[in-house]
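Task 17 of the worksheet. Students: predict the tertiary structure of the chain below and write it out as structure tokens. Keep your answer in the requested format; marks are given for formatting as well as content.
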Amino acid sequence: MTVIDPDTPAPWAAELESAADDDVDMPLSTRLSIADTLTLGNAICGFMAVYFTTTGVLVPHLMGTSDGGMSRHSAATAVLLMLLASVFDLFDGLVARKLRSSAMGAELDNLSDLISFGLAPAYFVVVWGLVADDAYGKVSAVAAVVVLLAVVLRLARFSCTEVPGGVFQGMPSPFGAMTVISVVLLELPFVPTVVAIVGVAWLMVSRVEYPKPRGRLAVMTLSWIVISMACLAAWAFDVPGGHRLLQTGAALQVLAALLIPLFATTRRVNTIRNNRREARAAQLP
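Model answer:
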């Protein structure tokens, strides 16, 4: 028979004391900050976008109870939530620079971006391929996988590489997600739509430089998001001219996605040419 000394603490008691000490000694940097709360709002918006796409668009279509107005409202709500996620993504960085940021901030931001700007738009593309009349479900699923993988690769590369301050290398995932959704909302023929979606995915993993939304550019970005929300609301509530307004906004989004790489490439080529000219001039006697 084993005899236990009453003065000797039990093993389980020692483990509890150790766990309590660890909790007390937990560094403040691992606790949630205000910026982290905004980042979690980003993740919630992405999940709810998937929810509305499923319950309001996919399920009614599969059950044969699809109502044009209801599906339009649900699709608009899903896109609005992705736009709201981009607002959270815009402000969590600004808040993190102004206030304290936790050690988990970067990881939380990547995980939230993966949900809102990777999973949500890819799932939107899959559902579009299932409900559209001229779409092919398997092909659209492949295009959606390409979008998801592009966002995964982009976020992983962003975490382990350093680029010059003030620019992103490759199309930012929020901008890419909104461009993918805009391509779908343009209601182009199936093949051009898939090609455009894959092209946006390529831009996200490319080395084309995009300016970071700071200062005036941040204000312009936020203003554009608000305008996009207004266009979606007009389309959802079937306002006269709302459909044309929505397609105009989607076309402008796609146009911006095409022009920014063009300007960036032109600027880089001009910079290289100027550097070569200066080097040649320096070599002349």
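Marker's comment: The chain has a mean pLDDT of 82. Strands lie at 167-169, 209-211.
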